[in-house]
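Exam prep: given the inputs below (a chain plus zinc ion), describe the expected output before reading on.
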Amino acid sequence: MEPKRILAVDIGGSKLLTALAGVSAEGEVSFSGKVRRELAAGLGKEDIFAAVTDAVDRTLSLPGAESGFDAMGVTIPGLADPKTARWIYAPFSGIRDFPIGELLARKYNAPVFGENDVNACAWAERLFGVCRGIDDFLWVTVSNGIGGGLVLGGKIFAGHFGCAAEFGHLKVVEGGALCGCGGRGCLEAEAAGPAIARRYAQMTGKEGFSARDVALAARRGEADAREVYRKTGELLGKGAAAAANLLNPEAIVFGGGVAESFDLLLEGLREKFNSDIMTFANKNVRILKTKLGYEAGLFAAASLPYR
Ligand SMILES: [Zn+2]
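Solution:
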């Protein structure tokens, strides 16, 4: 691939990260000038734009940025138009019709590439991670929520209305927990971080344990905590099998904070996946952990000028 210097902007729900990414011909990425800003809930477009430009300016003032950059990549936490890097809609923040790409291009006089954050992570996994050379896969993030991104035929598949791969809203428990989308029993409501904490509290009566605390308890060998992760893995496996039966992908990749505990999820996940797939068609589907790590969003942003 063509070596480039990319100003990576990762806009999350509660934080913003910027860095300068140097991408080599071999697809190795090195970051310099990392800047992090918290984003308070309920910020409007002007405040978000001010936070982004402040962070970008800071990144550009740090060592490593002396020779500037070729392009900017921006991950957008919501529905995005990849052609114009326009932020179309974010259901939780209420941001609507925000031409962030255009504004950044004008301010920095550089080409700007934007995409929905999870789609961008999927694309980054193909360029820089475990999906190099894989044309058909589903990328899943499991953290406080659950999202999905699809690469099909070597391209991001966004769906007719831009909302494909809403993996978190596959219904996995009939009449189950209420989801942020208004539905019940969605994977997001049953298997994301808060659901892990809730399941553990229900099972043990111990309140105030986060998904991460439960993972630590599981690693210490606590049976209830291990069971919570096994059960959560089963639900993810149920969703993954439904996706595989529909798409027949080469791989399904798991990322996000909860996927840091992938080893704890894997037994239940594989068991349920194997029992629910149409075996002859999907027995070779690979279940993988992301290689992008904690800073997936920066890799995601850096991948966008290579679309
Ligand atoms: Zn839902």
